[in-house]
TrEMBL record:
Transmembrane segments: none annotated. It holds the Pfam family Alpha-amylase. It comes from Pseudarthrobacter chlorophenolicus (strain ATCC 700700 / DSM 12829 / CIP 107037 / JCM 12360 / KCTC 9906 / NCIMB 13794 / A6). This is Alpha amylase catalytic region. GO terms for biological process: carbohydrate metabolic process.
Amino acid sequence: MQESVGVEQPVAGQDGPRDVVLAALSRERAAGLAADPAFERRLDRYLPLLTGLFRPLYGARADWQDQLAALVVQAARSWQERTPELKALDAEREADPHWFQSNGMLGGVCYVDRYAESLEGVRRSIPYFKELGLTYLHLMPLFLAPEPHSDGGYAVSSYRQVNPRLGTMEQLRSLAAELRSHGISLVVDFIFNHTSDEHEWARKAASGDPEFSDYYWIFPDRTMPDAFEQNAREIFPENHPGSFIRMEDGRWVWATFHTYQWDLNYANPDVFRAMAGEMLFLANQGVDILRMDAVAFIWKQLGTTCENLPEAHSLLRAFNAVCRLAAPSLLFKSEAIVHPDEVALYIDPAECQLSYNPLQMALIWESLATRDVSLLAQALERRHNIPAGTAWVNYVRSHDDIGWTFADEDAAELGINGFDHRRFLNSFYVNRFPGSFARGVPFQDNPRTGDCRISGTTASLCGLEDSPAEAVERILLAHSVPFSTGGIPLLYLGDEVGQVNDYAYAGEPGHGEDSRWVHRPHYPAEQYARRTDPSTPAGAVYAGLRRMAEVRAGTPELAGTQLIDFATHNRSVLAYQRPGSPPESTRVLALANFSDSAQNLPAETFSGFSPAAVDLLSEAAVQLDSGLTLLPRQYLWLRVTPL
C-alpha cells in the first residue's frame, strides 16, 4: 500500500518529482491550503501517472519538476474551491464509473441562441427536455467570441466569460445545477487547440510580449513555417493558404483553421497549466462533460503532418489525470474526424471516455443512398467494440457537415472505389443524382477535385420537403441504429420534430459563406406545436423517437456498448445483436431494412435462436421458424433466446 502523500515530507538529499511536488504542497499548506484526505488518496494514485506523462513532454526543460509541482498545487486549489454538491457527485460517480453507459442515457445538442435565445431560455426548456427523456445536454460553444469572426463560437476570446448575448457565467453555473437536479448532465465544448486572436493571451502576443508569444507558434520569418508546411496539410485553403498567417508586425503565427484562430503551443508547459486551469474552472461551474475539440491537431512536430501524433494522446491523458485529481467526475468526449483507425486511438478510460462516432453516422447516410448496408455492417463488426469503461456518442447528424470518413481499404474489400464512391454520395446528397430524395447543400464544394461535404438537416436529407411519408420512415430508420447499437444516442434538437433546412441562413451576418448554417435553424416552433399529432410528419417523427427512447430505457440488453455481428446474407438488411452487460440469457437482435422494397429473411437465418421472439417496439410476437419479411424501411428490435 502506498503511504499518504498528505503526511509524507520530502527526504533530505532527494529531488525527484514526487519530492518537489510534496515540498510545494507543504509550502501551500503552510500558507493556508487545507489538507484533504480525498485529494491525498487520489494524488497517491494519479501522481505517478501524471509524472510519467509530464516527463516525456517537458522533461528536456530544467524546470519541468517545478512545472509539475505548480500543476499539482493548482489542482489542489481547484479541489478546495469545488462545492460540496460537486464533491458529492464526484463520490457518486467514482462509486458508479459506468453511469454514462446506462440504457437510459439520451443526449440532445443545440445552439443556445438559435434554440432558446439565451441560457434563461434553456432553463425554461427543462420541462420539455424531461418530456423528451434527455439525460445529457450539449450546449454548443457559448463562451465569449468575437463577431462576426467567431467560427460559430469556436474562436474563444475567454473561457471564463459567457457570450453576453446568451447570459452570464453565473447563469451557466445555475443552469448546470438545475439540470443536474433533473438528472441531466451538462456538456460544453472545450476548444483547446486554439484561441481567438482577440483572446487576452493573443493580444499580448501580438503586442510582442515574449511570455505570451511563447503561448503560440510564432516565428519571425518564413523559415520555420515553410519547413512545417512541407508536411502539414491545408485545412481551410479557401480561407488562407498553408498553416500560417502573417501578423501585423510581420511575424508568422500558426492558424490551422481560420485566420483569427491561433494554435496554442503545448510544447510550452505554461500553456498546459493555463489550459488546465480553464478546464478546472469549467468543471467547478458544474460542467459534467467536455467535448475536446480538434484533438488531432494539438501537438506539432517538424517533419510530420502535425496530426494524430503520440504526444497528442499524452496531452489528453495528462489533462485527464489532472481532472482525476481535482474534478474526478468530469468526462472527456473526443472530436476527431479522421481515419477510423485514428478515431479509436483517442478512446480510453485514461484519455477520452466518450467519442463521437463519425464513421457510423457517415455510413448510415451511405446506406440510405445505396440501399446497401455492406459498408455499415462491416464497420459495426470491425470498429464498433471499444475498451471497457468507454462509450460511443452515436448520432445521425450533428452541427457539422457530413464527410465520408470510411477507410478506402475497407471499401476496396467490398469492391468499392473510395474516390468514386464519395463523388457519388456527394452528388446524391446535393440532388445532382437522378432519382435522389435528398435536399442537401454542398459545403466547400470543389468541382475541380470532386471534393465536397454535405450540409442539411436530417429531414431535408431524407426528402421531407418532397415525400413526407417516405422521409419519416427514413428518419426513423436512420435513428434506429444509434438508438440500438450501444453508447449514448444524440439528437440535434429540432430533428426530433422533423425540422427542415433554413435557406435564409445566407442573409445572416457572418453566415453567408458557410453552408452549415442551413442545418442550424432557429427553434422550429410550428413543428414543436405539432409533435403530439401523429398524423403530421413532426408528430410521427416525435412519436417514433420517443418510442425508441422508452423501449431502450426499459431494455437491459441495450446498456453498455458490446455488439455482436449477425449476418443476414442480404445486402439491404442490417443486423446485429446486443447481449447487454453483463450478458443475459436473452439478446436483442436489431434488424433494419434499408431497401425501398420488402425483404424476406428465410428461417435458416434465425436457426441459432428459439422460434418465439418479441418485437420490443411493437410488442408483437414473432415466429422466427417461418422466416421473416421486413417491409420497406422497416426496423425491428427482437428479443430472442439463443439455443
